[in-house]
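We emphasize that the prediction below concerns an isolated chain of 419 residues; any contacts that depend on oligomerization or on bound cofactors are therefore not represented. The input was used exactly as deposited, without trimming of termini.
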Amino acid sequence: MSIVVIGVNQRTGPLSLLERVSVSPKDLAKAITGLVSRANVREAVVVSTCNRTEVYAVAELFHGAYADIRDFFCELGGIDPEELHPHLYSQHDAAAVTHLFEVASGLDSAVLGETEILGQVRNAWESAQAEGGAKATLNLLFRHALETGKRARTETAISRSTTSVSHAAVEMAAERLGSLIDRRVLVVGAGEMGEGVAVALSGAGVTDIVVTNRTHERAVTLAQRVHGSVEPYGNLADALGRAEVLVTCSRADTVVVDAELLERARENVTSPLLIIDIAVPRNVSPGVATCLGVTLLDLDDLRDWAAKGIEHRAHEAVHVRAIVQEEVERFFVDVTSRQAAPLVSMLHERAEIVRQAETLRFASKLGALDEAQRAAVEALTKGIVAKLLHRPSVQLKEGAGTSQGERNAAAMRDLFDLS
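Result of the prediction step, given as a token string:
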């Protein structure tokens, strides 16, 4: 049995490919059930963000699982295997565990040390649990991953300064324009990314924040939080005509702003418009860049911009990698100790059968005891059994995965006739 990860991320594939293999929240349940229904995939978690789409799986055979998950990506994006192959990465066992822990710690992000990824990993795990995709092995793995991500952020400075895509987008806009103070900023999307953008704008001193979203109530809630205003989604063209900065981050499956809409909205507007599209799939058509007075930036531009600031936190990455290595080792210790659990359970079950049989054999001699005395005998015999089995149980767990542990386990099976 192997733990494997197969995926495409911001380093291995272009944004156009990431868009095609992105899994929206509404399609996540279907993706998980589809994966675990395949012959070689026993468990599966799908992590799909603006920077990556990855499948973590438990498989009996690596090559069989690779083929199943590759086919999943091909079907998802309507891609031929030959087109996908150069951009697909795969790792298994210790390398796969290390990769996930680095992802959760922010080491594998376009913005080094970003904080958003930890919540995204948690959400992916919870979704897989709800659909029956994550069971014993992946539940243990993702619990350790979240613990690793928390350690990285509490014990190092990896997440100081610019630590999210939404925050980076606001900083990039401010750098482009010199300042965002007194600028009218339109935010399209009120989900997690939209919230991050709006809060970052407010923190940067922007006082004219307009929020629009397909679900009006979410836009209202977010606008209230940052003391902004709401534009009904149906009035997007009007809002575009008044905006000086547009940040798009909705999870729409289709383009929200195209050149025709933008030209119509800004027909009588001469002031420039800066657009930053951090959505996957993209909310803004690339053709918008040809519109007069419009500057369009997307995730590729953001990654290039963020790369300039990596050196400020790069020395912290060394400490985070040390934490990741410690946690990988701790994970495998936990895995091996759990491998001993069935044998320990069998040992205790066999002892309990013997204890109950002996208690029953002496039932006639204990008949004169009252209820309290019988309870005392029950507690006494259980306590003796527990104390006698404590040390052998500890030895089995501590030795799991070692040659000595294998010898101890074999001896235990022989001595107690545990099949």
